[in-house]
Amino acid sequence: MPPLGSPVRRALGVRLLLGLLPTGWAQAGTQLEEPLSHAVRSALSAAVAAAAPPEPLLVTPQDQQAYAHWQAACSQRLTRYTRHPTERQEFLQTLWYEARRAGLPLSLVLGVVQVESAFRKFAVSGSGARGYMQVMPFWARLIGDGDDSRLFHMQTNLRFGCVILRHYLDRERGDTFMALGRYNGSRGQPAYPQAVLTAQRGWAHPVD
Q: What is the pTM of this model?
């Protein structure tokens, strides 16, 4: 998790006052767009800006060993979704970076990606949500540079998805069940959160 004083945590740590009104379930794209307050929009915009190469910060040999073990374990599980070892390595490296940057459990983000897109980079929902974490195009306009085609870029998609999920966790005061409902657009309904939490257990690892 980034230090509390970092720009990312300052942006993500703002208590966000307005979320999106949830509807439906099974796709993040069923959410309805609503205006964001200036404070919320500024915080989220800062959190998705200035994407850096997803290089994990591994200070000690223990950190490096833990990361290597996590990579190996998750890569083996990912073979059912993609056969290419290089693609698996790049995806996991990027997910590690973005999940850690947003202060999210790695297994939770993996669970969301599994349920939302089954790890399909170019997945598109019936309502237009895109990529691994099924990010709606309007997010690119609200808090990004307006180019929604970039939501198919691996790091951009994971960056937006992790920032949005962090937003909902802050909105729900750390309640993962309710935050997942908001992410999916089914707040208060159990099906989607239970699906993600079940998937999360399959990705559990001591490094979390």
A: 0.83
